[in-house]
Write a structure and sequence with these properties.
The protein is α+β, with helices and mostly antiparallel strands. It folds into two domains: 99 residues, Immunoglobulins (Immunoglobulin-like, Sandwich); 122 residues, Immunoglobulin-like, CATH 2.60.40. Helix content is 16%, strand content 39%. The protein contains three helices and 14 strands. Strands 4-3-6-7 form a four-stranded antiparallel β-sheet. A four-stranded antiparallel β-sheet has the order 11-10-13-14, covered by helices on one side. A three-stranded antiparallel β-sheet has the order 1-2-5. The protein is rod-shaped, with a radius of gyration of 59 Å. The protein starts with 5 loop residues before the first helix and ends in a 9-residue tail after the last helix. Keywords: Membrane, Signal, Transmembrane, Transmembrane helix. This is LPXTG-motif cell wall anchor domain-containing protein. It comes from Actinoplanes nipponensis.
């Protein structure tokens, strides 16, 4: 046999190529049959101020099940919340099934990684996935809802003890008119100012518990401007009214008569002057209690 023949050389080259190709398939086959796919997506939890990474892992092999031989995370100290990533040498997971889990990372970090290594009865595979963070994840303070201010309840004001009201003194005779007050002990000091139609002026101060009056000569057409003043709770109140003298009906033209003078409370129903005086006194106290009477300095 001629070893140098062209046919011999061709056969040798073909056999060598076939052996090399078979070796290449033998080496590449196991590597491509086992691999892990790891991916992670990060979102910012603004309530906690942390990055939340949603990891998805798919271990692909040519056996029905596999076990983890390594599961590690960065940054150090972080964890993943799915027990399926536990490395205990016992737990078998279904091949080619996606396993997910969440990792919480401080908001100041810029990235995190998940490394997994899986073992099948037919081989092993290891892979690392990286999640990159954009910016910082900062905790947001929720807006503060203002606490409504309770409405203050104003306690009712209890009025002070009111002063006693004075009783009028009023008397008309055929030639005089008498005007004054009987001031009760629980009253206030009262000042009566008299100004007659003749121009005469008098002032009478009546303290609580006192009974005083002034008498004037009078004839038809005579009148008195009576100013009734009192100080209540530190404020002075006053009221003025005109009292006209009315001569009793039983007086003669000279001013003489035998009838009794008209006096006291009964005068309010008989003489217009008494009614006016009652109106002045009662009106003053009625309004003073309500702070409506005009104030005089």
């Amino acid at each position: 046999m001629n070893l140098k023949s062209p046919l011999r050389r061709t056969a040798v080259l073909a056999a060598g190529a076939l052996i090399g190709l078979s070796g290449a398939f033998a080496l590449a086959g196991p590597a491509s049959a086992h691999h892990n796919i790891v991916s992670g997506q990060a979102t910012c939890d603004k309530v906690a101020g942390e990055w939340v990474v949603d990891w998805s892992v798919q271990a692909v092999g040519n056996a029905p099940t596999y076990k983890w031989t390594e599961v590690s995370l960065t940054p150090a100290g972080t964890t993943i919340d799915n027990e399926a990533f536990k490395v205990d040498g016992k737990t078998e997971l279904e091949n080619n099934k996606v396993v997910t889990g969440k990792q919480r990372v401080p908001g100041t970090e810029t990235s995190s990684t998940l490394t997994v290594a899986a073992h099948w009865t037919s081989g092993d595979a290891k892979a690392t996935g990286t999640a990159t963070f954009e910016g910082k994840c900062e905790k947001e303070t929720p807006p503060t809802t203002p606490t409504p201010t309770p409405t203050a309840t104003t306690p009712p004001v209890t009025p002070p003890d009111l002063p006693g009201e004075p009783a009028p003194i009023f008397e008309e005779t055929c030639d005089t008119i008498t005007i004054g007050l009987d001031n009760p002990a629980d009253g206030v000091e009262i000042t009566l100012g008299y100004k007659t139609s003749k121009g005469e002026q008098r002032t009478l101060v009546i303290k609580p518990g006192e009974k005083k009056s002034e008498t004037f000569s009078a004839k038809p057409g005579f009148s008195i401007d009576l100013t009734f003043s009192a100080t209540v709770d530190g404020k002075k109140y006053s009221e003025t009214d005109t009292i006209k003298y009315e001569q009793p009906a039983d007086c003669d033209s000279s001013g003489n008569g035998g009838g009794l003078p008209v006096t006291g409370a009964a005068a309010g129903g008989i003489a217009g002057g008494a009614a006016a005086l009652l109106a002045v006194g009662a009106g003053l106290f009625f309004m003073a209690r309500r702070r409506k009477v005009k104030f005089t300095a």
